[in-house]
Write a structure and sequence with these properties.
The structure is a homodimer. In chain A, 42% of the residues lie in helices and 15% in strands. By secondary structure, chain A is an alpha/beta fold. The radius of gyration of chain A is 21 Å and the shape is globular. In chain A, 57% of the residues are buried.
């Protein structure tokens, strides 16, 4: 139990474990954000991000967290959109708040962790809604929504589709162009394995046409200002330069691994965690159905009886492992393990082993080894 | 001329030269932004920032550039304010744009680099304006506006005073409480000597009373959300953690030096640069008067005949020194040298010496040594 801050394993769904070479890149001396070195980093990163987003669209990089991009996505449309805000978790709820701030909003709410009723979405579109917001992967519940179905509906009824891809892009398959997503965004501190501080937003022509005619938009997250500057290899306001150095490095690492390899690796990790959870007799929290699946970037587990989250968190923390609890209404009811960022099979096994030990001590499980064996069978492909 | 990116001296008014220990702090491994380590950094930094701001007010830290704080300052007041936006430089202009986005705005515009007519401000307040925006130190023109005068007017007419202290706070005396400033903000990449990425905003009770009753506000820069989270030692959205590590270090360094010593040092640096400029026969750009002074954080110099800015910039750059040009309407007409960030007397002398050499080569000056001698006399207190 000799873990220090330097050796702690951070398994929460962002911030995530960051690779040493990415951490080192943060420490480079400053450069002029209006000079050629910054232009090169920005231009090349934006180009590589198009591959990450699976898109032909322009990608804008914002110096702010995923919520900054979320505000940009909803706030640049001019305030006249009739939004359908789909909520089945905390980030769907946040999108709902934003849609009501920047337009009229008719939310479609499912219990957190349960699936969206796509018929309701269809009905809202038939009744004249012209924009839909959806969270692809709900970090808060460990569930992935089927965006493809919603995309097909949006294309049929000519509504704009805005997708929160914060904890999916780069970690879960998300071919946004193919799905008919018009605006998608992600954050640096998830599948890209960077520290928090940047967000990226892809905007297609259909969305730009609306944005260009909008009378009102936020200022710091003004996409027109960002696009104008991006065309010159700049940002409208001073960018968070260290994160851009780190982004350059993280994108190199992603290129070296390959996007589909990264996605496969995350799938394997998440599958192994789920296998371990079930082998230990614990229950997964989300209830996936026809329009959803278990998340491959974060696993949400029901708190077993015999231990509360605070004890679990502290016992894991004593052993150098940081796990997450539930947010808001899910506080105390679930715990969450992320597999995003710079982690290895060994890290997964360590987490499961320590979890099993803590649960054994508390009498929640009666023997050691079932979890790690189940996890390792998946990791080994057995 | 063997400077590399690692040894380049960045003398633009942000990003600035960052000290090695601050750069190193950026590279620490991630921590949970909802955990005790982050709480400690946030709580302590906010407390120290109150000293930096010379205020009893609460200080909020935003994960975004100075413009993010600028939007927060103007955008949280509910949209019903009748602003007087004072503009005599680029950042005054930006505040003007923001005030018209978030309220009604009657700008008072002086030619960039010239002084504000305080009588006009008084008149506007008499006519019912209830909020004033002013840039304390205009990075774009190298001039510092007298906020104390405006503060006295605002207190007399009970108008809210919002001050952009981005390139002054921590580098130029700015006792905001004493002056009657209600909201003031700064950015990390100026006098604090950090990389860009964070901004800090101080809000007094008078301003909070208005903000609390506001019906509408921006989302990412929602000060109520930030304050609620800050009370728990958190941020509402994921913060740019590496910059918080760096802030902790930069505030330690500031404490070790002392705020008034830092301000004195910057004053000496700027005075020495101005002395050198005048000794070389060049002209300072701003025209200070009763309501303004030369800036002690950035010096703006008229482009002399015989050289254009692009040549000057490139010749300096070849020698490893990065200087700034004019922005927008001042492009080509001025160049700027900042003395913010982690620089030394030796750096100042180097910049002046190289500038003198470049100007000699171009025939702008006829002999070497006058500039460095004048600068060094100031530095040595002779």
């Amino acid at each position: 139990m000799g873990n220090t801050a330097e050796t702690e394993l951070i398994m929460i769904p962002g911030p995530v474990q960051v690779a040493p070479q990415v951490l080192r890149a943060l420490s480079k001396p400053m450069i002029n954000h209006r000079g050629p070195e910054f232009k090169k980093i920005l231009d090349e990163s934006r180009e590589k991000l198009r591959s990450l987003f699976n898109t032909e669209s322009d990608v804008i990089i914002l110096s702010g967290s995923g919520t900054c991009a979320m505000e940009a996505a909803v706030g640049n449309l001019g305030g006249h959109k009739k939004f359908v805000a789909i909520e089945n978790g905390k980030f769907g709820e946040r999108l709902k708040l934003l849609t009501s701030l920047y337009g009229s909003s008719a939310p479609i709410i499912a219990e957190w962790g349960t699936s969206i009723n796509t018929d309701k979405v269809k009905q809202a579109l038939q009744e004249g809604a012209d924009a839909v917001t959806i969270v692809h992967n709900e970090t808060s519940t460990g569930m992935t929504n089927d965006v493809e179905q919603i995309g097909a509906l949006c294309r049929k009824y000519e509504a704009l589709l805005i997708m929160d891809g914060v904890s999916s892009i780069g970690g879960i398959e998300a071919p946004i162009d193919k799905w008919g997503v018009d605006i998608a965004f992600t954050g640096s501190q998830k599948c890209l394995g960077l520290p928090p501080g940047l967000s990226m937003i892809a905007v297609n022509e259909r969305a730009w046409d609306i944005i260009k005619t909008a009378q009102k938009r936020p200022f710091y997250a003004d996409l027109i200002a960002h696009m104008k500057s991006a065309d010159k290899g700049q940002t409208p306001y001073t960018p968070t330069i260290p994160l851009f150095f780190a982004l350059e490095e993280a994108l190199k690492m992603l290129e070296a691994e390959g996007l589909s390899e990264r996605i496969n690796r995350y799938r394997t990790y998440a599958t192994s965690i789920r296998a371990a959870i079930e082998a230990m007799g614990l229950e997964l929290f989300p209830q996936p159905s026809a329009s959803s699946t278990y998340s491959n970037t974060v696993t949400a587990i029901k708190m077993p009886s015999g231990i509360d989250f605070v004890s679990l968190k502290n016992e894991m923390r004593r052993r150098g492992i940081i796990i997450a609890g539930g947010q808001e209404r899910l506080k105390g009811h679930i715990f969450r393990i992320s597999n995003m960022g710079s982690i290895s099979e060994g890290d997964i096994l360590q987490v499961i082993e320590k979890l099993e030990l803590v649960l054994l001590e508390k009498g929640v499980v009666s023997e050691m080894g079932k979890g790690t064996l189940a996890a390792d069978c998946v990791l080994e492909g057995l």
